[in-house]
């Protein structure tokens, strides 16, 4: 039985999707906007950011990131996939601080990497006050306040002499440049690039970006539901029983509404786990809409074409692709061998865009606008025009 229903483009109680509301950008009080892939721990929900990109707020209002067991102050986030940070121990304003020996920054197994074309410096601890080193002293060693900390770049001719006379160890640091001197360069910090799921399509479609650690995949939180990459141009709403449905609005109808009638007639005859379920439809004059079960991960097309610029968060492994192919094959077999009332259905438009995936990436065939219904006892199917996608 197909229901004819009336829809509103919002939840039944008028409220917004909770995760959409939760992922509002925030700040650490220094007016620096914090949003995906970052989130403020204890203030914003972890699903609003990418794993490992949780920030904390310092007493001075600056956010900071923990890396290699050290705090790095975030001076500025550029939402073109970069940010400028500095080790918190070098962010003090006084010119002759005593510095602890900080660990070298290690970025392996993270989504962060040093931006190219920056300068590498060596910090040498526990240095004696030799004449050739005095101009390079930036402070004292916190472990041994009688020893000095010397900063040099790789090209410095005195680097070898310093390595022999500084007994407190060496730390590699990166700076964006050396303008204003090494001390200022250390305070100003360096640039990091990040590589995570692209947020632009979600944001441009009116959604807020996030991440689901249960399926380890990017999510686009929309005003009324969750999508895999961007908010659907079709509507998705929550019914009174709290179930989500998707609404396909047919804006330009071919012929005399042939596709609308064809899709309702075709899919209403089906009942299979690999065929999307038509819940109902509605129409008013030239406006027509189809109501389907909600498929959280959208179409297969978004996951397999390079033109979508998908990162590793979106890629389907070989086993998942195999199971999707098997599911589509079973759905086609069901359509071709015969559905209800001794009929067969030929889809004529099978393509990744018309294969929908649920929250577990289980595939279902959709879009029966070009389908043709045939009796099972007919072995030849005749058509007046070409069908399908070229």
From TrEMBL:
Enzyme class name: transferase
Membrane topology: Single-pass type I membrane protein
GO cellular component entries: membrane
Stored SUPFAM superfamilies: Protein kinase-like (PK-like)
UniProt keyword Ligase, yes or no: no
EC number: 2.7.11.1
Keyword Chaperone: no
Entry-linked Pfam families: GUB_WAK_bind (PF13947), PK_Tyr_Ser-Thr (PF07714), WAK_assoc (PF14380)
Catalytic activity, reaction form: L-seryl-[protein] + ATP = O-phospho-L-seryl-[protein] + ADP + H(+); L-threonyl-[protein] + ATP = O-phospho-L-threonyl-[protein] + ADP + H(+)
Gene3D superfamilies to which the protein is assigned, alphabetical: Phosphorylase Kinase, domain 1, Transferase(Phosphotransferase) domain 1
Keywords on record: ATP-binding, Glycoprotein, Kinase, Membrane, Nucleotide-binding, Serine/threonine-protein kinase, Signal, Transferase, Transmembrane, Transmembrane helix
Domain called Protein kinase: residue spans: 200-390
Family annotation (PANTHER family): RUST RESISTANCE KINASE LR10-RELATED (PTHR27009)
GO terms assigned for molecular function: ATP binding; polysaccharide binding; protein serine/threonine kinase activity
Subcellular location: Membrane
Organism listed in the record: Glycine max (Soybean)
Domain of life of the source: Eukaryota
PROSITE patterns for this protein: PROTEIN_KINASE_DOM, PROTEIN_KINASE_ST
Coiled-coil stretches noted in the UniProt entry, renumbered to this chain: none
Annotated protein name in UniProt: non-specific serine/threonine protein kinase
Lineage of source species: Eukaryota, Viridiplantae, Streptophyta, Embryophyta, Tracheophyta
Signal peptide positions on this chain: none
């Amino acid at each position: 039985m197909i229901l004819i229903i009336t829809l509103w483009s919002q939840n039944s109680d008028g409220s917004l999707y909770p995760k959409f509301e939760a992922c509002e950008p925030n700040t650490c009080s220094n007016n620096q906007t914090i949003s995906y892939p970052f989130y403020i721990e204890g203030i914003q929900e972890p699903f609003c950011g990418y794993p490992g990109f949780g920030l904390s707020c310092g007493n001075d209002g600056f956010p900071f990131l923990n890396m290699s067991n050290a705090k790095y102050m975030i001076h500025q986030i550029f939402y073109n996939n970069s940010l400028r940070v500095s080790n918190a121990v070098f962010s003090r304003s006084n010119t002759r601080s005593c510095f602890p020996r900080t660990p070298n920054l290690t970025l392996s197994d993270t989504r962060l990497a040093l931006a190219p074309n920056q300068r590498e410096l060596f910090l040498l601890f526990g240095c004696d006050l030799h004449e050739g080193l005095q101009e390079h002293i930036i402070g004292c060693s916190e472990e041994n306040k009688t020893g000095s900390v010397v900063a040099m770049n790789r090209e410095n001719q005195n680097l070898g002499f310093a390595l022999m006379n500084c007994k407190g160890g060496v730390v590699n640091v990166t700076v964006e440049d050396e303008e204003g001197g090494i001390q200022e360069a250390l305070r100003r910090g360096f640039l990091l690039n990040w590589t995570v799921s692209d947020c632009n399509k979600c944001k441009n479609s009116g959604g807020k970006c996030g991440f689901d650690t249960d399926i380890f995949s990017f999510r686009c939180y929309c005003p009324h539901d969750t999508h895999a990459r961007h908010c659907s141009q079709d509507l998705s709403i929550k019914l009174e029983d709290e179930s989500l449905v998707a609404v396909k609005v047919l804006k330009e109808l071919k012929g005399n509404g042939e596709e609308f009638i064809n899709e309702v007639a075709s899919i209403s005859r089906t009942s299979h786990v690999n065929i999307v379920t038509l819940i109902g439809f509605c129409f008013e004059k030239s406006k027509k809409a189809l109501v389907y079960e909600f498929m959280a991960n959208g179409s297969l097309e978004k996951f397999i074409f390079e033109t979508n610029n998908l990162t590793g968060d979106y890629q389907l492994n070989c086993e998942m692709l195999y199971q999707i192919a098997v599911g589509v094959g079973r759905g086609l077999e069901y359509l071709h061998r015969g559905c209800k009332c001794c009929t067969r259905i030929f889809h004529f438009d099978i393509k990744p865009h018309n294969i929908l995936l649920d929250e577990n990436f289980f595939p279902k065939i959709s879009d029966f606008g070009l389908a043709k219904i045939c009796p099972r006892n007919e072995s030849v199917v005749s058509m007046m025009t070409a069908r399908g996608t070229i």
